[in-house]
Predict the structure.
Amino acid sequence: MKLVIDQLIKAGLLVAVLFVSCHAVAGQVAVSGRIDPTSSPKSKYFDANRLLRDVEYLASDELEGRDAERPSIEKARDYLEKRYKESNLEMIGTSYRQWFIIKYRKLTITPAGTNFIGKITGRKYPDKYLIITAHYDHLGIMKVEIYNGASDNASGTAGILAMAEYFKKNRPDHSLLFVAFDAEEQTYQGSKHFMANLPVKKESILLNINLDMISPNDKRELYAAGIFHHPKLKSLLEKAKEKAKVKLLFGHDDRKRDAEETDWTSQSDHFIFFQEKIPFVYFGVEYHKDYHKPTDDFAIIQPEFFVRAVETIIETTKILDKGIRKLKWPYN
């Protein structure tokens, strides 16, 4: 199957239908060149300019909204492969890419999807894993408007790349897998394939940390959801709250208290881990006015908040890495 997919990719036959390039769409302006390195936020954890450039490119018109149905998704994939290499992440096998077939209703020939998997080996417990995830796909073009998905989820994708930069220089106790999922917008097909074809033993996975829409927020609030389902995590997340660079809140994970649309348990790829009884922490901001709209562009990202949110997630991951064994994991 992998050989067939490789041949399809090389031949450019990922989809059955050709579309008009988004560069011909009226009213769209390229976003390149917006970042001023002299005025953008600084970080002691990672290259903040690199973080912002990652979002800027992934959310640019050139990528046509990162829809797995469109051939232009290959530009996002090539970019992620380059960034994984630049981050010096270890491969599991001979490639960062994990191919799969997307079961897509719109097409007569289904396209190939691609997850990206990179590893940092832990210093003390190399055979136990925290899985750091974000999806990189989005909605594409609808009614001649590009849905660039800067918040959803170029922000999370750039976030895990910054995390990889930090933890490559500051090795954790446990091994980390950095997984960028494809086809989240198509009913989590990338994470479903990953779970069905795990590159490590399921029982070796201690936790999923998922990033999806981690900026913007006018109140400087970032949520860490998952405590309701995994209350043992609360003590560690409370410690993280004390070190947070933004306002770290808990919630959006209790169906008894939250309405269906505000319970985030099933709202992103962490749900696939939850279904397999693997604990999760889901980082995200509350829905904003640009969610799933063509206005979700790089301009809304709020660089200062975004950089501090990623720093907060790194600090939380450090605390989880150091403390999770004290919780008598795996969770029962």
